[in-house]
């Protein structure tokens, strides 16, 4: 399973990078495959692993912000691993043709 999620602190002003970094730190320390871009962090693992990481990432932001918004999108394919890399490689292969 891959979950792409975004955690946004509300009520802390416009500069939210340090709060987002708290969430990304949780993901990185989880040891699960992950990727962060300008809008989302994607994490790959089984349901319980991924949801635990998302919950802890939200809690890290919630500890410092009065309100938190979370957006999630999930790709659930039992038995499939390595999707964070293979999906991108497939698209790149088609772009190279």
TrEMBL record:
- Determine the domain of life of the protein's source: Bacteria
Sequence ranges assigned to domain Thiamine-binding protein in this UniProt record: 3-92
Under the heading InterPro entries, the entry gives: MTH1187/YkoF-like, Thiamine_BP, UPF0045_domain
Annotated Gene Ontology cellular components are:
cytosol
Matches recorded under PANTHER family: UPF0045 PROTEIN ECM15 (PTHR33777:SF1)
Q: Which family does it belong to?
A: Belongs to the UPF0045 family.
This protein is called Thiamine-binding protein
Q: Which organism is it from?
A: Streptomyces albidoflavus
């Amino acid at each position: 399973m891959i979950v792409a999620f975004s955690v946004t602190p509300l009520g802390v002003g416009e500069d939210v990078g340090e709060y987002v970094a708290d969430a990304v730190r949780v993901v990185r320390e989880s040891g699960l495959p992950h990727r962060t871009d300008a809008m989302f962090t994607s994490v790959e693992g089984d349901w319980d692993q991924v949801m635990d990481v998302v919950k802890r990432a939200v809690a890290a932001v919630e500890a410092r912000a009065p309100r938190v918004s979370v957006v999630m999108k999930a790709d659930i394919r039992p038995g499939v691993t390595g999707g964070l890399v293979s999906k991108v490689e497939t698209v790149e292969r088609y772009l190279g043709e």
